[in-house]
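In response to reviewer comment 3 from the previous cycle, which asked for concrete evidence that the modeling workflow produces usable outputs, we include below a single protein chain processed end to end. The sequence was submitted unchanged, and the resulting structure tokens are shown without manual editing.
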Amino acid sequence: MAKKRKVKVAVLSDVHLGTYGSHATEMLRYLKSIKPEVLILNGDIIDIWQFSKRYWPKSHMQVIKHITKLLAKGTKVYYVTGNHDELLRKFVGFRLGKLQIVNKVLLNLDGKKAWIFHGDVFDVTMQYSKWLTKLGAHSYDALIILNRVVNFFSVKLGYGKLSLSKKIKNNVKTAVKFINKFEDTVADIGIANGYDYAICGHIHHPEIRQIKTSKGEITYLNSGDWVENLTALEYNDKAWTLYKYQEDTVAQNIKLKEDNNAYLSSEQLFENMLSEFKINPAT
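The workflow returned the following structure tokens.
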């Protein structure tokens, strides 16, 4: 196996474990290719909204198990709660060794302040129409299944893969972003608080860019997702970079155990997950 890349800080969000669209296997390969000092799971890692489907491939549990292995090896892990895993907000403040469950993370990186949070707090569709957002999540999951069927026949016919879900999702998220000015709001608040970096997820749009206003300047970063874009943020040598799985041939060639077709019920999932993190649900 190739030597693991050292990463000072790695930020991933919107993995949506527990849904058909989650690329858990690809994320696992990525995690196995790096040696992070700090791993920030920036919301919507586990899609608790979708547990009613009782869909939990063993590959999804392997991601959880690998994160616990990183903890055992000294990686500091922050689990930042998002809207799809908001149930975990009742555990905010929980600590176990190097694991913390939080609503946000503030880091000092080489003298610069980084503000890291999921981002759903600035989404007006979440604040005022949660039922509509959940309906959209279920529809999107169904679209993922349809997209896979279409791609199966498209590849067989020699046309290559299509991305119906990405096109539709990006159009919807672009509309939401335009209406509530998501990025501008993040930048304004970040500048007002004296932060150098504002880092979020939620809108599934990977990006690194400078935003200037009359009150100052800030670096806005979005880690993207592991449903369509398969991206993450990495901090090394005083700089942030946007990681893209499609461009990482090393991670793509990592061999995994052939047990990804085994499934767990939601009851088994919670028992195993709580056991992995040693969380007592009664506390």
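The chain is about 35% helix and 25% strand. We consider this sufficient to address the reviewer's concern, and the full set will be provided in the supplementary archive.
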